[in-house]
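Homework help board

Subject: predicted structure for assignment chain

Our instructor gave us this sequence and asked us to write out the predicted structure in token form, then describe one feature. I got the tokens but I'm not sure how to describe them. Can anyone check?
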Amino acid sequence: MYTDNDIKYFAERGIKVEEINRQLEFYKNGFPYLELVRPAVANDGIRCFSEQEISEFVQKYNADSQEINIVKFVPASGAASRMFKDLFVFVSEYNGTPEQKQKFADIASPARRFIDNIDRFAFYDNLQKIVYGKYGMSVKELLQAHKPKELVESVISSEGLNYGNLPKGLIEFHRYKNTTRTPIEEHIAEGIQYAKSGKDVKIHFTVSPEHLGLFTAFVEKARNFFEEKYACKLHIDFSTQKPFTDTIAVDDNNEIFRNEDGTPLFRPAGHGSLIENLNDIKARLIFIKTIDNVVPDSRRETTIKYKEALAGYLLKTKENIADYIKLLENNPTSQQLDEAYVFVSKKLCVEFPEDFLNLSEKEKAEKMLLKLKRPLRVCGMVKNEGEPGGGPFWAKNQDGTTSLQIVESSQIDKNNPKSQEIVKKATHFNPVDLVCDVTDCEGNKFDLRNFTDPLTGFISHKSKNGRNLKSIERPGLWNGAMSDWNTIFVEVPIETFSPVKTVLDLLREQHQI
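My token output:
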């Protein structure tokens, strides 16, 4: 099945033959869907803090955080090409014919909305320079000359701002009085406000290999401004997705897809592979947030408050976990076992199968200890207002327990009426707002790779050089890669979620100053 060169090539990439065999089996048999039990909703899987609780948790975090090693972790590898997808379509289709002019005249068309609001984008001043240098006229004059295509090209092409090829983290998002900021700068400013330990602020970005140089150079230029403004010391580093997490591609017959030189084709397997990068972080407390979910300074107060509240609740819960571990390891009484059971089932939202109650006291203690001795994450959830993304559900685990999971649509069987009915009843979705404790109660770092679900994934259909191929992708870092963590969901306000999926999202109120 494999040639000697194949096996050598696998070894060079750090991938075992057994792993290749496992992936090929998934192509043949598919991935199992998650068995949903019910949606996580307010007071049944999702906690809703009172203002008093928020204040208490914020105080706890601020009191304890100075002694804790903290890192903010930002997956920033996304290219901006999807953000400008509608503009690419416009450039490819617009040819100045009456039909195209009429289509462009529709005020609802994305390109028309973009151009009508061009002066509201943070990158407008730099665009002016590009347009003047190229055409000898201003943006307004270019439009008066009926050249909308040339204007759009000046934004997305390599001869303009090159935004269609840059990573999203380096696009100008927000305009300030005398400057603009990119998402990477906003994440630095935000991290300084809640991920600070003493004067140290540690932020880790995962980036694409081809963009690593751009990111490092950009941060070096921006560093001094933030350190002087906020009297802090920034520790910013980067990593790329590891080659051995790539998955092998196959053709329509589930045979290995080969490049022109005969080598097997491997493809990046998605955000779920970043568990390897997260596992390398040397810290106890890790905040996780996506690159495009940022707001300007003036709109960040609610975000900071809830970040600190989530972290304070996590620290309080971790203290409770330590107490119950100690209790269960020292011959607990029946009453103490009952107390531990209530904590694990109600606070950590782990529901044991019915036969749990028939176990001996020793067996009960052992099973609860297994659940207590795991990484812990507290995840903010917002009410569903139609935004794309995964959601919070109660789901069955392979060991028979039921627990909270962040579930993507690819993990749900669309042909299962029961699952679809559960999805319809969902009230919240996942904005990727996590704070994690990745150490045990003695301060030792967990090996996070031991708490994933290896059966989580989906098969995507793509092509290369006109040939069909299939590849395996792992759902987000916060899905299958964290499926065996202790998970707590907390409702957070919609104001804490301001993603930029398309360039027109920058026109939303929360991105305007």
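Reply (TA_rk): Your tokens look well-formed. For the description, you could write something like this. The mean pLDDT is 94. That's the kind of observation they're looking for.
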